[in-house]
């Protein structure tokens, strides 16, 4: 048996890909996963290039692994994910001790690539886009816990001016609906209660059905809700652009779909949205939210924001703050704009200085945090359905779980509740968690 160590950076899609890599390699019965890099025979780095100095971070990490390889020359180093797809052969040029470069769509080829290297030491690279092929090699059925993510589509055709995803993940492609449903059914049989449908733009899902028709996202959501054992459905990420009425209707008739939606708006200024090439206005976004509220009055919305996009003025930024207050977002992932090589926005002058960007980010996060807290306070004394995940890490006398709106709740309960949905009354509200009691 040989030991494999995998380091994963980036989004949930990368996490999902890494779990697929684990499945592919373990299936060969030749490899075991280890949590210690020093023990590994094969080191795999699954990279992310969405922000910051992604390339530099990769080469720093590889530098550390070079030291391990110096001690143990037979170690194989493989680099995959978005930086690998973007940099390709450049990786070997800067780090000639790397053996394999694989892309976001070629992970299923890793076991064969490793075999080849073991027979003959030479660089191997495959960053092609054989779309969906990786899904044919294994359904992801092994999980721990009671929630699981399932990829339903990959890639993006939207080409927002700041974003590298269309270049690193390829064009939108949906998995056939039966494959997705089969994977979820097996997960449900193995005890999974909550499913998170994954994709760069899940609402653009158009999967082939067994009889050659197209299954849209709204239909897929209803089909997943029919699967016995699945009691809660989430999805990430969706885009305001194709958030059509048929999807909003699902909120009316499918209670398993959570009353919590992550719908990234990025900015509250129409001028900036246009420069970002987001293809919607704040007014259109607001209309979607109004419709959602009439379908699901208690829905909570979270978003992604970018501050300091080229030419963003104080006035544009203020519009974002006003919009955050108007929509009353519950949470956000907010980022400082980072120029990405090869994107159209990288040709615009990155003219806001870092100090100002940081100031805007701080103001924005402060505003959202206040709203998060006020949403949490509204939950005081309410009854919540909580999926109990296990024993609290802070206090072994307590259990913890998650509410529909993604809050961690701790409470005193008994072990047989783990893995079940339990109704709890919220009795204390803290910044990062809630305390509750059984009713
Ligand atoms: N499909 C999603 C976005 C996926 S990328 C959507 O439609 O919004 C995840 C988040 O990373 C984006 O929402 C954006 O806020 C952030 N991001 C992407 N590129 C960025 C960049 N160049 N600089 C800063 N943040 C960026
Ligand atoms: Fe990126 Fe825009 Fe697609 S943010 S993932 S190009 S929707």
UniProtKB/TrEMBL annotation:
Residues that, per the record, bind [4Fe-4S] cluster 2: 156, 160, 163
Residues reported in the UniProt entry to bind [4Fe-4S] cluster 1: 11, 48, 82
Annotated TRAM domain residues: 377-439
Entry keyword set: 4Fe-4S, Cytoplasm, Iron, Iron-sulfur, Metal-binding, S-adenosyl-L-methionine, Transferase, tRNA processing
Main subcellular location of this protein, as a coarse class: cytoplasm
Domain MTTase N-terminal: 2-119
One GO molecular-function entry: metal ion binding
Domain of life, source organism: Bacteria
Pfam family name, one: UPF0004
Cofactor binding note of this UniProt entry: Binds 2 [4Fe-4S] clusters. One cluster is coordinated with 3 cysteines and an exchangeable S-adenosyl-L-methionine.
Domain Radical SAM core: 142-374
Gene3D superfamilies given in the database record: Methylthiotransferase, N-terminal domain, tm_1862 like domain
Matches recorded under PROSITE patterns: MTTASE_N, MTTASE_RADICAL, RADICAL_SAM, TRAM
Transcription listed as a keyword: no
Keyword Nuclease listed: no
Gene Ontology, cellular component aspect: cytosol
Cofactors required: [4Fe-4S] cluster
Catalytically driven reaction(s): 2-thio-N(6)-dimethylallyladenosine(37) in tRNA + S-adenosyl-L-methionine = 2-methylsulfanyl-N(6)-dimethylallyladenosine(37) in tRNA + S-adenosyl-L-homocysteine + H(+); N(6)-dimethylallyladenosine(37) in tRNA + (sulfur carrier)-SH + AH2 + 2 S-adenosyl-L-methionine = 2-methylsulfanyl-N(6)-dimethylallyladenosine(37) in tRNA + (sulfur carrier)-H + 5'-deoxyadenosine + L-methionine + A + S-adenosyl-L-homocysteine + 2 H(+); N(6)-dimethylallyladenosine(37) in tRNA + (sulfur carrier)-SH + AH2 + S-adenosyl-L-methionine = 2-thio-N(6)-dimethylallyladenosine(37) in tRNA + (sulfur carrier)-H + 5'-deoxyadenosine + L-methionine + A + H(+)
Subcellular location per the Swiss-Prot or TrEMBL entry: Cytoplasm
E.C. number: 2.8.4.3
Binding partners and assembly: Monomer.
NCBIfam families in the cross-refs: miaB-methiolase, MiaB/RimO family radical SAM methylthiotransferase
Family: Belongs to the methylthiotransferase family. MiaB subfamily.
HAMAP family per record: tRNA_metthiotr_MiaB
Known role: Catalyzes the methylthiolation of N6-(dimethylallyl)adenosine (i(6)A), leading to the formation of 2-methylthio-N6-(dimethylallyl)adenosine (ms(2)i(6)A) at position 37 in tRNAs that read codons beginning with uridine.
Protein name in the entry: tRNA-2-methylthio-N(6)-dimethylallyladenosine synthase
Organism annotation: Buchnera aphidicola subsp. Rhopalosiphum padi
């Amino acid at each position: 048996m040989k030991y494999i160590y995998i380091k994963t950076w980036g989004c949930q899609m990368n996490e999902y890909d890494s779990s697929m890599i684990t499945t592919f390699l373990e299936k060969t019965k030749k490899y075991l996963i280890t949590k210690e890099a020093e023990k590994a025979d094969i080191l795999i780095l699954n990279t992310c290039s969405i922000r910051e100095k992604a390339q530099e971070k990769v080469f720093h990490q590889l530098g550390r692994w070079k030291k391990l390889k110096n001690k143990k020359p037979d170690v194989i180093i493989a680099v995959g994910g978005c930086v690998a797809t973007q940099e390709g052969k450049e990786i070997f040029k800067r780090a000639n001790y790397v053996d394999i470069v694989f892309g976001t769509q070629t992970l299923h080829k890793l076991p064969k690539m490793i075999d080849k290297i073991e027979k003959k030491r030479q660089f191997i690279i495959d960053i092609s886009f054989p779309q969906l092929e990786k899904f044919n090699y294994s359904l992801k059925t092994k999980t721990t816990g009671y929630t699981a993510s399932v990829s339903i589509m990959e890639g993006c055709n939207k080409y927002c001016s700041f974003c590298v995803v269309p270049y690193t993940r390829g064009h939108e492609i949906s998995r056939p609906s039966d494959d997705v449903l089969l994977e979820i059914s097996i997960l449900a049989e193995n005890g999974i209660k909550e499913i998170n449908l994954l994709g760069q733009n899940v609402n653009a899902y158009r999967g082939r059905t067994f009889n050659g028709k197209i299954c849209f996202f709204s239909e897929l959501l209803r089909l997943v809700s029919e699967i016995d054992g699945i009691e809660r459905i989430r999805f990430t990420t969706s885009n305001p652009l194709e958030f059509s009425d048929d999807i909003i209707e699902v909120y009316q008739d499918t209670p398993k779909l959570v009353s919590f939606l992550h719908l990234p708006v990025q900015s509250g200024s129409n001028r900036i949205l246009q420069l970002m090439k987001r293809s919607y206005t704040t007014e259109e976004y607001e209309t979607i939210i109004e419709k959602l509220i009439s379908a699901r009055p208690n829905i909570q919305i979270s978003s992604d924001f970018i501050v300091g996009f080229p030419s963003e003025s104080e006035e544009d930024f203020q519009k974002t703050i006003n919009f955050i207050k108007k929509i009353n977002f519950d949470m956000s992932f907010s980022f400082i704009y980072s120029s990405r090589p090869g994107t159209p926005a990288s040709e615009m002058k990155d003219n806001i200085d870092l100090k100002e960007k940081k100031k805007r980010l701080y103001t924005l996060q402060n505003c959202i945090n206040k709203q998060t807290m006020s949403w949490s306070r509204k939950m005081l004394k309410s009854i919540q359905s909580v999926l109990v995940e296990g024993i609290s890490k802070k206090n072994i006398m307590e259990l913890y779980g998650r509410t529909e709106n993604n809050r961690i709740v701790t409470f005193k309960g008994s072990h047989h509740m783990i893995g079940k949905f339990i109704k709890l009354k919220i009795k204390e509200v803290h910044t990062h968690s809630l305390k509750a009691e059984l009713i």
